[in-house]
Amino acid sequence: MDRRMLMVAMALPLLLVTDASRSHPWSQQEVTDQKPRALANETTLIRGLISHISPDADSGANPTYFAHHGAETSPDGYYGFIATFDLYGFALKHGQGTAGAVWIAGSGAGPLSGAKTIIIGWNVLPAEYGDSRTHFFTIWTDDGFIKTGCFNTKCPGFQPEKGAHIAPGDAFEHVSTPNGGKQNLNLKVVKDGGASGDWLVYLGLNRDPELIGRFPRSLFTGVFADKAVAIRFGGMVSAPVSDPAPMGSGYLPAAGGAAASISNIQLIDRNGRASPVTQDLPKLESKPDAYAVSPIENGKFFYGGPKGAK
Fold first, then answer.
1. C-alpha to C-alpha distance for 5 and 152, rounded to whole angstroms
2. Residue 7 parent element (H or E)
3. For residues 120 and 138, what is the distance between their CA atoms, to the nearest angstrom?
4. CB atoms < 10 A from the CB of 278, how many?
5. Distance of alpha carbon 232 from its chain centroid, rounded?
6. What pLDDT, in 10s, does the model give residues 166-183?
7. Rounded distance, CA 28 to CA 169, Å?
8. Which 8-state DSSP code applies to residue 42?
9. Does residue 308 carry a pLDDT above 90?
10. Which of 99, 140, 120 is nearest to 225 (CA)?
11. Which stretches of 14-173 are assigned E, i.e. beta strand?
12. 97, 265 in Cβ contact below 8 A?
């Protein structure tokens, strides 16, 4: 995976869980571009991370944008999620990338070496795969990618279940059509309450999710070995300024059924109980005129933005 896009993916949980008491949506002024003015008031860690991710960000080279909702305020933490994504496909070029994903964050405040996360979902990333197909992907790290973590199965980490029908990096044969038929990616990640304590990964395409693998507890240290402190749902794109990439289906949420959706959103507690998300959650839109999210209603929201966004 493009190193810059991978590191930018890390920025999201760091930005959001550094101030976990923030329970309202971020204002447009706070997140108007890839290097928001609000970072001037954030921690040295975040400023340093953004600089590391994109040292020439001011030049506008290959900006990366997010549009997300997230849960980050439970005093007991989070032990997993359930969600359904529409799958979409695009003819992207090398240097462009788009993803619909869930970020499970284990920490945020402190040095970069303390950044712990699992990211899972679908993406189109020609630089990684050598094609413009839609793939299932995972990312993990226990230390901000300093010594641990990787994309898909490029290092010891994700352990596929014997006989699993899909593995990280595999391509999907069919994708959704805006205002047409949908291909539903049903995901569930849950902390094993038994002896292993692993993060168990379930996936089903147009069917109930089945166990396909796990992230062993031994990969992670600190709080993330036992629970997450934040879980966020949404999209991410990265591309040259002159050739922007679509997010979701390429349609803004105002397009309704033509826009990509994430539905059946549920959060799992320490007892393994899944509770539907019945209220709106805080949002982050780093370029809201181009990539946005709708409010969550009945555990569902729309997200994304157009191919021609600048």
1. 14
2. helix 3-17
3. 4
4. 10
5. 7
6. 999 999 999 999 989 999
7. 34
8. S
9. no
10. 140
11. 64-71, 80-86, 97-105, 117-124, 135-141, 150-151, 159-160
12. no
pTM value surpassing 0.70: yes
Residue 109's Cβ-count burial label (10 Å; 0-12, 13-18, 19+) is middle
Extract the tokens encoding 268.
């799992």
For residue 76, give both structure tokens: 């007991």
- Token pair in block for residue 294: 């709708």
- Cα–Cα distance, 11 to 114 (Å, whole number): 12
Strand locations in 216-310 (E): 230-238, 260-268, 274-276, 283-285, 292-293, 301-304
Share of the chain above pLDDT 70, in %: 77
Q: Of 226, 219, 234, 220, whose CA–CA distance to 281 is shortest? A: 234
**How high is the pLDDT of residue 10?**
53
User: What per-residue confidence (pLDDT) applies to 26?
Assistant: 34
Q: Band of the pLDDT at 3, cuts 50, 70, 90?
A: low
Question: Is there a contact between 119 and 102 (Cβ–Cβ < 8 Å)?
Answer: yes
- In the chain, where does DSSP find H-type helix? 3-17, 44-53, 126-129
Task: Write down the pLDDT at residue 19.
Answer: 36
- The CA distance from 202 to 189, in Å, is 6
Q: Tell me if 71 sits within 8 A of 230, measured CB to CB.
A: yes
Q: Is 252 left (phi over 0), alpha (psi -120 to 50) or beta?
A: beta
What value, to the nearest 5°, has the Cα angle with vertex 309 and ends 303 and 310?
135
pLDDT tens digits, one per residue of 238-282? 888 888 999 999 999 999 889 999 999 999 999 999 999 999 999
DSSP state of 27: P
